[in-house]
Amino acid sequence: MTLQPTQGSQRDRKPRRRWQSLAAVFAVLAAVAGFLGFSVTQANAAQVITCNITWTQNWSTPVGVTPKTTTFSVDRAHSKIWSCSGDPHLNSGINAGNAFQAGSAPTSASCLAGVYANSGSPQVSFWNASSGPTTSNYTWAEPSLADLVNGSKTIAASYTSGRYQGGTIAIVVAGTQPANALAACMSPSGLSSLTVTGVMTIVVP
User: Fold this and answer.
1) Which of 137, 142, 148, 195 has a CB 3.0–4.6 Å from the CB of 116, allowing a cystine?
2) 201 pairs with which residues across the strands?
3) Is the separation of the CB atoms in 119 and 141 below 8 Å?
4) DSSP secondary structure, 109-168, as one string
């Protein structure tokens, strides 16, 4: 005697087959995503690059106790970006050629007051990278000397083009800046040059 399947058992099989088909599709998508090196949850995550950074900035007119109009500049030869993480294509050794240049617009500043902003000339970061753009243009603002050397305020910037375009930058200056920086600034001759070290974090949406 042969038992024929009831209508109820046939209806039960259709949803089961449908779910089995969907499970197979998800398994294929997961395999493809794994092959490409990302997951669905990672696809929309921000890229975060962290680097050590140091530079020597020179003021055109030494900054002092009395506010004066001055500018400062940083050239590529006296800046370094190194020990980076978050970008596998970036050569991040201290001698890898990662550096930047910047110049401020004229501003009235003293040892304790004044905010510096980028000049009209392009501000450029240089990257020694195995793939992708090797430069970036950016805009920035730097706090007063007192806030800079004691690390109470960050340097804020954003990339407008090139590598990390659309990313924001925050540079936290180390609290171990030269102890005599403010003393030199408040001397009769003022401060004309300062080497700064900190940690730079770039966030690219």
Assistant:
1) 142
2) 50, 170
3) no
4) E-SS---EEB-SSPEEEE--BSSS-SEEEEEEEE--HHHHHTTSS-EEEEEEEETTTT-E
The DSSP line for 186-201 is TSTT-EEEEEEEEEEE
Tokens of 136: 């970036």
State which amino acid sits at residue 118. Answer: N
DSSP bridge partners of 196 = 55
Q: Pick the closest to residue 86 from 173, 186, 167 (CA basis).
A: 167
CA 43, CA 46: separation in Å to the nearest integer? 9
Do the beta carbons of residue 83 and residue 200 sit within 8 Å? no
In this structure, what are the phi and psi dihedrals at residue 143, rounded to the nearest 5 degrees? -75, 180
How close are the terminal C-alpha atoms of the chain, in Å? 68
pTM reported for the whole predicted model: 0.76
CA angle 158, 163, 164 (to 5 degrees): 45
Dihedral of the alpha carbons of 44, 160, 98, 193, in degrees to the nearest 10: -130
41-92 per-position pLDDT tens digit: 445 789 999 999 999 999 999 999 999 999 999 999 999 999 999 999 999 9
Alpha carbon distances (Å) from 2 to 5, 10, 51, 151 = 10, 16, 75, 86
**Cβ–Cβ < 8 Å for 55, 79:** yes
